[in-house]
């Protein structure tokens, strides 16, 4: 194999696919990235894979001799990132392939040699039947992931709850995530927003039919990496999603991401969201986040509990934290309140996560009793619903 | 007690003295900062102390009622840093002083209460006889610490080597630090450099006499914090140093730092520095640091060994690392070489530490044999000597 490529291309593509390389690989070869050089296309393909999540990226290079090899991802990344900008040559002698060859990396600054492992030992990425792709607008995915990913469970034993549940129903795309304590749901449009200047093209996309509806649950870990790929997309682009029995593949330009799906029935979350409420409160989001950040200094030391006291007479909500032997904190924020005065307790971390994801200036809270689910929604922008279970206040 | 002060003053002074507060205090009270409010001076003094290092800082405040109290440093810092800019009021009722009082912190945003501990339980900073102060130029201290601190030992069992040895001999101030593997020595001027425009004042500072000579060894940990204080000094300022049997105090404006001295005889390091050399090499410092950073990716995986091969015929030094099962690296740098070709091995970390501290563009290396100490000096700027012991190369 012999390829000549630019240091910048190699660095960027390598750092992307390395995100799928596990830090504690179950098999030694998974600590490596797969490098495939194709002479016909003058293209190099890099792959990182942890048996659940795979990331693949292609870039143009001068391929003087084809080849397939794997190299230790972390070392290779550390070296390539430090090389000076300019041409990098990666090569090894095919006759060395009897055993694992020394791969030479030449740059303007000097020469590295790394022991590679033959490509055939690297596991194949699962193949997905690629007949029909769902085209999803990048903007909708960004909005949906930002508003839901944080609420997925980090507890691997909770299986299906470690994913985000994605539903396409005709022209809406819905994202949901819950860890059992809070639930985040975002509704977005499954069709690319047509700009006014492009109105003549309005009929270029055929309408989505019921046959194109789907529901899948995708591991949050894979979707966090998908966010990295999305950040490279141009405005107005769509990403292709291929789905089969066990796998999904997202494809954007030269990058793709493969992930297993999560099996099992996702909770019927819509039935958890109450329709009627006894009280509502509208507050400034940033002001509330700042107050929560201050009082959290004390709640972090104890049980993470913050108490809201709604007072409709003076149009204020008071946030208070009691950390007995250490002290206490109290801040009041002006709020538009409808309904009787009352007190309710929250886990401050769950509350802050939600307020940070709701990107509007003003947030509407809807309450029933002090032990019933609370809903927070933004007054503008994304169509998001954040449900949070209150915490009982012990006096 | 009741004081009204600015959030910015409180935050800055608190974050400074908190640097002396131990993360794992041997007595619970040491996790607190001492706050003393003086009504006559309208001044608040904050103190942090770990029984070895003490930091004290004063600032102006409106003191409505005097008082002495200690508060948990970390909590207080976290709260004050998050408060909005503007006035902060700190108060407690003196009648509560029977037990530990709840101290109230009022700001524009709301109210915090923290359980304080009575000031009399806080240990006194050691008193140093303040009769004569040595005045040390801030610029000299900065230069000396930058060039020596990194070479002090981090191994607490090495006692005297965990400090920097400071010698004033008439108008020179010398800093030395060694951990047994390398030695850094910086010579600076003990007199404030007089600017040309101030030539008329040239005789304002009386010459330093032999009676004002001193040698002391100060813990590196204290000097790292001194660097923080020095960074607040204005150009041309001097810092006052008070020394007694067991303690030193550095004083700059409203800030002071107290530290115990390290007892014991400091190694006679000057006799370790060879006077004659068989070979010299001059290289570009940045070029060499960049090369070392690249090849260190491999040496870090093994024994930290980098081999220098000096070749006076093609005026190059080749840096090479051999990490057997992983691979190898080789870079060549142009160098002015005098003397026979030869090979020598170094601990790459020690080499990089020294090159980063030597701030000149060009560095001169002086060698004898491959097992004898090597000296690196900058060709311009600070007067610094870096001695490094080579590592034996095993073939």
From TrEMBL, chains A, B:
Domain of life: Bacteria
Chief location: cytoplasm
Residue span, DNA polymerase III beta sliding clamp C-terminal domain: 271-391
Record's GO cellular component terms: cytoplasm; DNA polymerase III complex
Protein localization: Cytoplasm
CDD domains, A to Z: beta_clamp
Protein purpose: Confers DNA tethering and processivity to DNA polymerases and other proteins. Acts as a clamp, forming a ring around DNA (a reaction catalyzed by the clamp-loading complex) which diffuses in an ATP-independent manner freely and bidirectionally along dsDNA. Initially characterized for its ability to contact the catalytic subunit of DNA polymerase III (Pol III), a complex, multichain enzyme responsible for most of the replicative synthesis in bacteria; Pol III exhibits 3'-5' exonuclease proofreading activity.
Xref: SMART domains: POL3Bc
UniProt keyword annotation of Nucleotide-binding present: no
SUPFAM superfamilies reported for this sequence: DNA clamp (SSF55979)
Organism: Cyanobacterium aponinum 0216
Coiled coil regions, renumbered to chain: none
A GO molecular function held by the record: 3'-5' exonuclease activity
Protein name as annotated: Beta sliding clamp
Subunit-level organization: Forms a ring-shaped head-to-tail homodimer around DNA.
Residue ranges occupied by any DNA polymerase III beta sliding clamp N-terminal domain in the UniProt entry: 1-126
Family: Belongs to the beta sliding clamp family.
InterPro entries for this protein: DNA_clamp_sf (IPR046938), DNA_polIII_beta (IPR001001), DNA_polIII_beta_C (IPR022635), DNA_polIII_beta_cen (IPR022637), DNA_polIII_beta_N (IPR022634)
Residue ranges occupied by any DNA polymerase III beta sliding clamp central domain in the UniProt entry: 142-268
GO biological process: DNA strand elongation involved in DNA replication
């Amino acid at each position: 194999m012999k390829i000549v490529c630019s240091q910048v291309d190699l660095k960027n593509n390598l750092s992307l696919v390395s995100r799928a390389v596990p830090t504690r690989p179950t098999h030694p070869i998974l600590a490596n990235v797969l490098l495939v050089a194709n002479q016909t296309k003058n293209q190099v393909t890099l792959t990182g894979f942890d048996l659940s999540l795979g990331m693949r990226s292609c870039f143009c290079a001068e391929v003087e001799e084809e080849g397939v090899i794997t190299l230790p991802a972390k070392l290779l990344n550390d070296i390539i990132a430090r090389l000076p900008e300019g041409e990098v040559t990666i090569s090894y002698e095919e006759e060395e392939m009897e055993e694992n060859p020394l791969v030479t990396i030449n740059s303007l600054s000097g020469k590295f040699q790394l022991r590679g492992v033959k490509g055939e030992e690297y596991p194949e990425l699962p193949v997905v039947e690629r007949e029909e792709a769902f085209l999803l607008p990048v903007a909708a995915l960004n909005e949906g992931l930002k508003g839901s990913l944080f609420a997925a469970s980090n507890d691997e034993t909770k299986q299906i709850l470690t994913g985000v549940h994605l539903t396409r129903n005709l022209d809406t795309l819905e994202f949901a995530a819950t860890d059992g304590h809070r639930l985040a749901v975002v509704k977005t449009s499954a069709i690319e927003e047509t700009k006014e200047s492009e109105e003549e093209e309005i009929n270029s996309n055929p309408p989505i039919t019921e046959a194109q509806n789907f529901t899948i649950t995708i591991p949050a870990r894979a979707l966090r990496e998908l966010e990295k790929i999305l950040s490279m997309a141009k405005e107005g682009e769509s990403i292709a999603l291929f789905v089969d029995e066990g796998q999904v593949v997202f494809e954007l330009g030269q990058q793709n991401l493969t992930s297993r799906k999560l099996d099992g029935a996702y909770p019927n979350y819509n039935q958890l969201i109450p329709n009627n409420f006894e009280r509502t409160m509208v507050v400034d989001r940033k002001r509330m986040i700042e107050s929560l950040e201050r009082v959290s200094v004390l709640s972090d030391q104890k049980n993470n509990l913050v108490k809201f006291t709604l007072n409709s007479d003076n149009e204020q909500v008071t946030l208070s934290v009691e950390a007995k032997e250490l002290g206490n904190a109290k801040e009041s924020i002006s709020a538009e309140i409808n309904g009787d005065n009352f007190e309710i307790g929250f886990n401050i971390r769950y509350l802050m996560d939600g307020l940070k994801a709701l990107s509007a200036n003003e947030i509407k809270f809807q309450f029933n009793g002090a032990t019933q689910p609370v809903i927070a929604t933004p007054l503008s922008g994304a169509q998001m619903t954040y449900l949070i279970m209150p915490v009982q206040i012990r006096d």
